[in-house]
Amino acid sequence: MRQHQRRRRLATRAVAITGCASLLSGIAAVGVATPGLASTRQPIARAATAAGDSAANGCQLGHGIKHVVQIGFDNVHFFRDNPNVPSDLQLMPNLLNFLTSNGTFLSNSHTPLIAHTGDDLLTTATGLYGDRHGNGIANSYQTYNPGGTTDPATTFTYWTDPIYDTASAPTAGHDTNPNMVYSPTPPATTAPATKPDTVTPAPWVPYTRAGCNVGEIATVNQELENPSPDLADVFGANSPEVQQLNADTDPYKDPETADYIGLAVHCAQGSAFCASAEAVKYGQSTPSRTAVADLLPDEPGGYTGYQALFGHKYVAPQLGAGTANLTRNGYQVTNAAGNLVDLNGNQINGAYLTNYPGFPGYDSINASQALAYASDMLESGVQVANIYMSDLHGNEFISSLTGKGGPCYQAPDALGSGSACYIAQAQYYNQAFGIFFKRLAADGITAKNTLFVVSSDEGDHQAGANVGRAILPTPASCDGATVSGDTVTPAVECTYPAGSFGELDGNVTGLLATEEGNITPFSLEADTAPEFYLTGDPGPDTPVVRTFEHAVAGLTASNPYSGNADEKITNYLADPTEMAILHITDADPARTPTLAMFAKPAGACVQQDTGYAWDHGDYAAEIDTNYVAFAGPGVRHLGLDGPAANQGTTSSGPDSGQITVAQDHFPGPWVDETDIRPTIMYLTGLRDDYEHDGRVITQVLSDPDRALSGPGVTQLGGCYKQLNSSVGQFAADTLIASTNAIESTSSSDQTYLGTDQALAGLERARDALAGKIKGELEAAAFANTPVPAAAVQALACQAIITTAQHLAAAS
């Protein structure tokens, strides 16, 4: 989850002493927010931008595609978390049925590691693993300072921002490389080493170069993320926007967040959407232009002459705000005050603000709001809408559901599958998608002329009561709701007894001291996959590091959910060599941790936190197995291709959280999030300025080019995924070997040193062959160049995987 606002306020624990089986990865990231001041500000009256914007006529996409609608959910699942309760997507049949009726739904898709919102959505947006886009550790990370201490930083910044050091008093000389630090090739095996001074190419560029406007609705890093430093970076240090920020004495900056954060439109050259945008800025009395130069100084091939609009305050007037009671095709766009409304007619207000129109916040933007923004954009000369929305597992405080007597009244922050508030929110989302598709159809926007792409950042492990566990929800057979056609009806509610639901957090510093007698100083990224940064940045084979690794490997704690009194906390351990194999480490060496632990997602620690109950980030099949759906021109109508919702990995059962992706053998194409971007580029006839880590998913194409359908190409692509994916077979075996080596004790530490050397050799071999294969697959997709000797390369691919299997078995 994004955790930018409401949930970030809960951050009162020091990251250095929390982190086992914890969902805290964004908590120490970017500051906080609390209720701000109400405002009577009204947008400038302005007619809606005509759909005949010059960009609309110049937007040139392939396969007859006129629009692109891409949705990246936050932790919305296709597989059931409780085997008796319909899954998130099953509870949104208006969406699920649209996708399966008009295209292909792949349920055997996978996340990268570490599986968190920032890394996953950036991987989806770019087609690059974290080692190349710069944020393999998410949603926050640490950077080493010159003296060997670390400062915290957040994944969530604007695309071109330097690292946002979130320490209350950043250390002098702290890392100022780009947050989105780019490496054109895998940085760990690139010689000479990639300089960490270049920003990753931006995902909106191919669209705007093709004459299309691109709307961003809460998408990761593609609009402004933080009032400071983003406003100064984009508008200028002396701009009215920064003057407004500086004049606001409330430290949480809610009005500025509502005005400028979370929304953007990147415009094509000459687009009237940006060129005509005006508003009365802070401290001014007359309207002035609001678009700013869309600056991407590192973009390959150059990027000049483009503009962008940032924030609700400047985007909303172009969507119709300022005109009272505006409707389009019978659907309400604004209210009597001229402010934008959601799909249910509710004014869209800034988070924690009353009657203050603005962005509703990352952690609470719901489907009715996000889809209303998208509808407004698509009707107003924006051809590409990228959409993010909050999940169903947290109480989103939807006004119509939280009133006294409502299903979410006094409901907890974390919701269990089948609980009353969870089901009510699912019904709300389902209704929103029903309205959304009808409204788009009234605009002539359908799967016949529009590419729809839907995926989620990652799955979750439900920490607490569930079927097959020591503690069950009541009644044990509860189903939450029934689904018939496009209708969801509440049924037998699932209730979670007090103390049976919530993640378990622990004092890692205390556990190390009391259980292992280890007091080595370190900083920590608190998570179910915590990263340890030992003070001084010692090398991976030094005595202090090896002693610390043995101490971490030996930690145990009581787990009330499994009933085990002394349960081992660690599932897997990765040192820098293995982290590079998993695509976690990037081109900036100051970000590389000493050690990464993949803990048991059930949370084998010491203190329950009922505010969080959905663990992700870890290495477990229900977290790392996901879905992606494509519907529209050029896409085959295969419906569901992969395991059904009740056949996938779940959080239930005694082995929940302990099954890995490599142990599942599901039907359907095996894909991961790097494959989504190249498939979209292929279908739209566009091309990125770089080589993707993923491949075009040939199985979903209705008419692939000859080179992509050549002999053995699909089979080679399948082996390539098992070789290069963070959760493929090669990664699974090397992680086992890494864990066993780190935990080993031998004379002169020869077992660890020998295994680590073997892993480094395997990585070099993997990167060399994977680079060759992905280059050929890229040429086949975007230049129709045949792949030579695909069958021979598949044998070489399998040979490297087999070598890793042997290393794991021998370790």
Q: Any overview of this molecule?
A:
This protein starts with 53 loop residues before the first helix and ends with a helix. α6 packs antiparallel against α7 (240-247), α11 runs parallel beside α13 (420-442) and α19 (713-724) packs parallel to α22. Helices cover 28% and strands 14% of the residues. The strands form 9 sheets. The chain has a 10-stranded mixed β-sheet with strand order 9-10-6-5-13-1-14-27-2-28, with helices on both faces. It has a 4-stranded antiparallel β-sheet with strand order 19-20-24-23. A two-stranded antiparallel ribbon has the order 3-4. It has 22 helices and 28 strands. It is globular and about 80 Å long. β21 (556-559) and β22 form a beta hairpin. With 811 residues, the chain is of the alpha+beta class. The longest helix has 34 residues, at 750-783.
Task: Summarize the helices and strands and which ones pair or pack.
Elements: H1 54-58, E1 67-73, H2 93-102, E2 103-110, H3 117-126, H4 130-133, E3 140-144, E4 150-154, H5 205-209, E5 214-217, H6 227-235, H7 240-247, H8 254-260, E6 263-266, H9 272-275, E7 278-280, E8 287-289, E9 292-293, E10 307-310, H10 312-319, E11 327-328, E12 331-332, H11 367-378, E13 384-389, H12 399-402, H13 420-442, E14 450-456, E15 461-462, E16 481-484, E17 487-490, E18 503-505, H14 508-516, E19 522-525, E20 531-534, H15 543-553, E21 556-559, E22 564-568, E23 570-574, H16 576-581, E24 595-599, E25 607-609, E26 614-615, H17 621-624, E27 625-631, E28 639-641, H18 676-684, H19 713-724, H20 729-743, H21 750-783, H22 790-810
Parallel strand pairs: 1-13, 1-14, 2-28, 5-13
Antiparallel strand pairs: 2-27, 3-4, 5-6, 6-10, 7-8, 9-10, 11-12, 14-27, 15-26, 16-17, 18-25, 19-20, 20-24, 21-22, 23-24
Helix pairs in contact: 6-7, 11-13, 19-21, 19-22, 20-21, 20-22, 21-22
